[in-house]
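G., the chain you wanted modeled:
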Amino acid sequence: MNQSDSIVIIPTYNEKENIEKIIKAVFQLPKCFHILVIDDGSPDGTADIVHRMMDDGLADRLFIIERAGKQGLGTAYITGFKWALEHGYDYVFEMDADFSHDPNDLPRLYAACSEEGYDLAIGSRYVSGVNVVNWPMGRVLMSYFASLYVRVVTGFRIHDTTAGFKCYKRRVLETIELDKIRFKGYGFQIEMKFTAWKIGFRIKEVPVVFVNRREGVSKMSGGIFSEAFFGVMRLRWDGWFRHYPPMPK
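Predicted structure as tokens:
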């Protein structure tokens, strides 16, 4: 059996063009990572591809949870986090299926937590300039200024607050009250980072290059941005009045 202390959670909805390639790319890395796919009822057969790969000899390091219909990015990750904790993983990653996150950066995020002692490592598009390839300029600006907006409103000094490429140490996910995380889209990414910061966990931004998807269809929507925009004001309010869990000893 291929043992690992690390699990990469990949949420999917209609990713048949990418899922086999991304799984193979992760499994080709020198370090052994396990993968958990959270599929929200993809009608294109994404889950069938994963099951075929599991049957072809990868069932000791590739896993899947299938859910009925699109239930949101945030709930997919919460489901994955709970599964990872139950199965004893020490490092839990978030990563997209569409190669916008380079699998070769996984070891760098891992090293930030396992060797450098950080509790949360963020694959950051903006910590060393603007490292985004093939995005329309309007979307680059929207993403960049969304992170700036979060910093201004909350005082949270992270450059890429909406980043979805991350490594958590186990104790972060054990401490955050996952059932109290409210947001589902970009708001979820902001809320998880903000909550970790408020508790007092050490966070590092690891510079990465984000590449727009080459295949498949983007799942972005106006509602996702609206949730993030208005949710940030609520996070600021929470920062003043909410009682956060204490740092684990």
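The chain has a mean pLDDT of 88.

Shout if anything looks off.
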